[in-house]
Amino acid sequence: MEFFEHQWSSYRAVVEHDLMEHRAVATATEAALRHWLAQRPATATPPALLDLGCGDLALLAPLLRDLPLGRYSGLDLAAVVLPLAERALGPVPYPTDWRVGDLLTWAQALEGDGPGLEQPDILHSAFAIHHLSDAEKQIFLQGARRRINANGVFLWVDVFREPGETHEAYIARYRQRIRNGWQALSVEQQEQVIDHLSQCDIPADRAAIQASAEQAGWRWHWAWQGQHQAEAMAVLTPN
Question: Does domain 2-238 have CATH number 3.40.50.150?
Answer without folding.
Answer: yes
